[in-house]
Amino acid sequence: MSALRPVPFPDELLDRVSVDALTRGFALAGDPIPIREVGAQGWSLSDLSPPILVLSDAALRHNVRLMADFCERANVELAPHGKTSMAPQLWARQLEAGAWGITAASAREARVIRLAGVRRILIANELVDEASIGWAAEQLLDPSVELLCYVDSVKGVELLDRGLASAGSVRPLRVLIELGHAGGRTGSRTPEQAMEVVERVRRSARLELAGVAGYEGTLCRDRSPGCLNRVRAYLDELRGLASRLVEDGAFSGEVVMSAGGSRFFDLVAERLRERWPSDVPVQVILRSGCYLTHDSGVYERTSPFADEDADRRFHPAMEIWGSVLSRPEPELAILGFGRRDVPFDEGFPIPTKIRTASGETVAVDGRFALTALNDQHGYAQVGSDLPLGVGDLVACGISHPCSAFDRWRAIPVLDERDRVWTRSRRSSEPVAGITRSSAGARRVAPRPRSRRAGPRRDGRRPWTAPGREARNAPRTRD
């Protein structure tokens, strides 16, 4: 792999993005306000209109730093899944903290990631349609772009090969052979099937085998001993396939090994990073995405750091605020958010605190819980000792951040004093929090960003911005 680091410049993507009174949560906006000027309005949480989904800047910074430190210690790379947020500002935080690149789940997502200026993209999926393959061929015209995708069948390789030929691809597309498991999603089901696919890749002048990939997250959903053993066994199969391919001379250079969601990335590092022969160059790339915002539900329970002290575990960065619309029964409260606003596929939101009409903040401490959701209403079972009145605001953590991001176009980031404010990467100018990206955003040419030089753990030079020497910045900054 090249030592070039991707340099995202999402600001230009946001030039045409604004919020106004029709943007959910921003009723005070009035006339359209450019997204990068929202922070200059002097707003705080109390100026936003419920329901409103918000992010904590402090938690984001903590989570980015914690994951970067883990990768440094484990000697693995990170290509966080961009689909989690589809927000260029959040990708920028991850890349500035040292991420190798960004993972996409589809060519459509990869197009958006590329428009954000990211030059290393791992498409964790197969490309089989003409439009997606043509787009990949177009990216290969730029020698600074590193693009990888999966293959898992001979038919898929043939479609990819023909599509690249038809599009006039100028250099080979690097592919990872995906090994799946019984009952899983994509991926060759056995090492023998994978070897047949690899043989077809090796006969193509337009493809280059880069490594082996898989996804362990569909094996099981908890961290019980039995589940962890199943994950370890699957990862050992990935490693065994890679070792077999190395012995067969299938790779021309560094071997890429990629796996790892947000539940078992510690096991991926454990099984794929260690004990390779000294003459085999291996690069392990994790694809975890949900760690960035974490949550108060499924990942709070199943994260590898779930049992650590507060400073060594991820912090929930996302919460939904909604009004108490009605107290129609003594132990029932109806909240002003529902299925259109919050995820529910991995559990209902978890109430954490109440802000009363007088401004007092009261901790919930488990005294009420969401029991059902309609489109715009949440049903809460309330303890009789909890002071909760119509018009009060309730904050809830969520479960499964991907499904939360899908529901909101613009999401403010709050500082420690609940101000809609965050630091620009280049100055302390107030800017908006984040916005989800749009595939219709215009293409922009990346501008160089500077960092002070610093050694890499693998001995390679730091990434270099176009046209100037690298000056490596601290691993995290805002």
Q: How far do the termini sit from each other?
A: 28 Å
Question: What does the main sheet amount to?
Answer: 9 strands, mixed
Tell me, what's the shape? globular
* Overall residue-averaged pLDDT value: 87
Q: Classify the fold: give the CATH topology of the largest domain.
A: TIM Barrel
Poorly predicted runs are 1-8, 422-432, 437-478
Total helical segments:
10
Structural class: alpha/beta
| Strand segment tally | 23
Radius of gyration: 23 Å
CATH superfamily of the largest domain: Alanine racemase
CATH domain class of the largest domain: Alpha Beta
Strand percent estimate: 15-25%
How many domains in all? 2
Second CATH tier, the architecture of the largest domain: Alpha-Beta Barrel
Helix content: 10-25%
In short:
With 478 residues, the chain is of the alpha/beta class. The chain has helices spanning 57-74, 88-96, 107-115, 130-139, 154-166, 191-202, 225-247, 265-273, 298-302, 401-405; strands spanning 18-19, 33-34, 52-56, 77-78, 102-104, 120-126, 146-151, 173-178, 207-213, 255-259, 282-286, 318-329, 332-335, 350-355, 361-363, 368-373, 378-382, 393-397, 410-411, 413-414, 422-423, 430-431, 434-435.
Please tell me about this protein's structure.
The protein is α/β, with parallel strands linked by helices and 478 residues long. The chain folds into two domains: 45-54 and 312-414, Lyase, Ornithine Decarboxylase, Chain A, domain 1 (Beta Barrel), CATH 2.40.37.20; 56-307, Alpha-Beta Barrel (TIM Barrel), CATH 3.20.20. Helix content is 24%, strand content 21%. The chain contains ten helices and 23 strands. It has helices at residues 57-74, 88-96, 107-115, 130-139, 154-166, 191-202, 225-247, 265-273, 298-302, 401-405; strands at residues 18-19, 33-34, 52-56, 77-78, 102-104, 120-126, 146-151, 173-178, 207-213, 255-259, 282-286, 318-329, 332-335, 350-355, 361-363, 368-373, 378-382, 393-397, 410-411, 413-414, 422-423, 430-431, 434-435. The strands form five sheets. Strands 3, 12, 13, 14, 15, 16, 17, 18 and 20 form a nine-stranded mixed sheet that branches. It has an eight-stranded parallel sheet with strand order 4-11-10-9-8-7-6-5. Helix 4 (130-139) links the parallel strand 6 and strand 7 (146-151). Helix 4 (130-139) packs across helix 5 and helix 7 (225-247) runs parallel beside helix 8. The radius of gyration is 23 Å and the shape is globular. 46% of the residues are buried. Residues 1-8, 422-432 and 437-478 have low confidence and may be disordered.
